[in-house]
Amino acid sequence: MTGGAAWHRRLRSDRGSSTVELALVAPGLLLLFGLVVLGGRIALAGGSIEQVAAAAARQASLARDGLQARSVATETARQSLAAQHLQCAAIQVRVDTSGFRLPLGQPASVVVDVDCAARLSDVAIPGLPGTRALHAHAVSPLDSWRGKSLGFGDSDSWPGRTG
């Protein structure tokens, strides 16, 4: 009987069970960690896009006319995205400059919309799409008493202007 009891004890041993448990739990923990990293990256990218749209709208509101505002806003958005190291597969900047057509003295604004297809392909989670569409909308007021550009290259040379 002693031989049978030793054999029975050997079958009920818990040896190696922690290794098996770790092997079963580890993939789930890695997936959870990957999802946390992914969520953080999407949140940071969303905040970056908001900041890019706000900076572009602000710069556009300082322009003298709608054409210059559109050009400045687009360039500011691209430079700001590059400075923040945000990798976008596709960038689209839309600028509404209709406020420049309003007469002086009336409240007006510039609206900038920025769309970015942020790359997520470097986060190795199975079934994850390669990009995530992000959108930001920003409005910046125009100065109601802004001056209109007269086409002079040097504003100090205007007739009647003294030093």
Question: Can you tell me about this structure?
Answer:
With 163 residues, the protein is an alpha+beta fold. It has one domain. Helix content is 45%, strand content 20%. The protein is built from three helices and three strands. It has a three-stranded antiparallel β-sheet with strand order 1-2-3, with helices on one face. Helix 2 (17-61) packs antiparallel against helix 3. The longest helix has 45 residues, at 17-61. It starts with a helix and ends in a 21-residue tail after the last strand. The mean pLDDT is 81.
List keywords for this structure.
45% helix; 3 helices; rod-shaped; single chain; alpha+beta; 163 residues; three-stranded antiparallel beta sheet
Helix vs. strand class: alpha+beta
The average pLDDT is 81
Q: Give the neighbour order of strands across the main sheet.
A: 1-2-3
What percent strand? 15-25%
Mind sketching the topology for me?
Blueprint: H1 2-11, H2 17-61, H3 66-83, E1 88-96, E2 108-119, E3 131-142
Antiparallel strand pairs: 1-2, 2-3
Q: In short, what is this structure?
A:
This protein has about 160 residues and is α+β, with helices and mostly antiparallel strands. It is about 45% helix and about 20% strand.
